[in-house]
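User: Quick sanity check before I run a bigger batch. Here is a single chain. Can you write out its predicted 3D structure?
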Amino acid sequence: MKVNDIMVTDVARCSPQTSLHDIARMMWERDCGAIPLVNEQDQPVGIVTDRDIAIGAALQHRPLWEIRGEEVAHGRAVHCCHPEDDIADALALLERHEVRRLPVIDPSNRLCGIVSMGDIISFTRAGRARKGDREMISAEASLDFLRHVSAHHQAGGQTAV
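Assistant: Done. Predicted structure follows.
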């Protein structure tokens, strides 16, 4: 199974200068928990999660409309995959970097989708595949991934996205 089999292609995005207020509104309207930040070429340069908004607001003691996305995403690497990547490789990347979402980029490094923990769970099969079943992700691989990214991590470590 490939990333393009499960990724979401209608991805909300914004510039790094977008306020957390506007990003939170986008999340509400699009029913999602993360918005990629992209540059002028539509290449991912960051990602803001609902958790980033909550913690950013609490720690900065400023209204959300005064805090820019780049302020809460600054310093964190953006880990991406490609549509033709095998889903097992994407799972390994999610686990290795302890993130819950991966922007998907095309050959020009432009954002073309996103794959999330929820997408992976949606394509997880229970039990053994039968002849004629569509290709699915094994329950074992999904559980290993969930176990790893949902575990408690040391304070000061990488923030899970």
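The domain at 3-150 is CATH 3.10.580.10 (CBS-domain).

User: Great, the batch can go ahead then.
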